[in-house]
């Protein structure tokens, strides 16, 4: 077995650091300016790296965009909820989604922009975001079967719930004063709002 080369380790760590800088800069700029309003040069300036490094590590702006959503893809695909207790599964799903939305608000902002613009990148984002919709649909179906909640249309309930969970309290246009709430308090309020909006039997 070949001994570990310290130079290789240092190079790998440096490459990871540079890639993380590029991704953080891109996330900030895509969120505030949109994908089309952001150039590779702006990303490099924000990340304080040379222009060639985006091509070297990612091959271009589109691949940077795709790489940004990999953590979100894994988060949604690896989330599991016990639908045997459907109401608790619904609570957990809503709470976890809101906490993730607060923690990674730039990513959800970018996603919302892409949906509104009906961008060509939505095809890729389907694989990222649709698993969460299917999870929620499964939970809602279990709630109906267990008679823990009642609603007339699962599709309307699904869209209204996701609309509530994706709403941003960070938007200064809609929120003129800062709300003295922790992420956990916001998540709990969102869960209460969803459950009160549905006809829950608890």
From TrEMBL:
Presence of the UniProt keyword Iron in the record: no
Pfam families: TetR_N (PF00440)
Molecular function GO labels: DNA binding
SUPFAM superfamilies: Homeodomain-like (SSF46689), Tetracyclin repressor-like, C-terminal domain (SSF48498)
Domain HTH tetR-type: 16-76
Swiss-Prot/TrEMBL keywords: DNA-binding
Residues of the DNA-binding region: 39-58
Transmembrane feature ranges: none
An annotated GO BP: regulation of DNA-templated transcription
Domain of life of the source: Bacteria
Name of the molecule in the record: Transcriptional regulator, TetR family
Natural source organism: Lysinibacillus fusiformis
């Amino acid at each position: 077995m070949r001994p570990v080369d310290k130079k290789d380790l240092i190079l790998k760590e440096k490459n990871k650091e540079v890639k993380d800088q590029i991704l953080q800069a891109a996330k900030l700029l895509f969120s505030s300016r949109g994908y089309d309003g952001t150039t590779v040069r702006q990303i490099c300036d924000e990340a304080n790296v040379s222009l060639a490094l985006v091509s070297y590590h990612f091959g271009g702006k589109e691949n940077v965009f795709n790489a940004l959503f990999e953590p979100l893809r894994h988060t949604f695909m690896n989330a599991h909820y016990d639908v045997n207790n459907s109401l608790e599964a619904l609570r957990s799903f809503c709470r976890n989604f809101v906490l993730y939305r607060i923690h990674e608000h730039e990513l959800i902002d970018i996603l919302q922009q892409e949906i509104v613009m009906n961008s060509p990148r939505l095809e890729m984002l389907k694989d990222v975001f649709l698993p969460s919709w299917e999870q929620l649909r499964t939970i809602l179906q279990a709630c109906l079967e267990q008679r823990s909640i009642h609603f007339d249309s699962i599709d309307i309930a699904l869209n209204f719930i996701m609309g509530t969970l994706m709403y941003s309290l960070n938007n200064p246009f809609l929120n003129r004063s800062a709300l003295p709430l922790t992420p956990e308090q916001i998540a709990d309020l969102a869960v209460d709002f969803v459950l009160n909006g549905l006809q829950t039997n608890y």
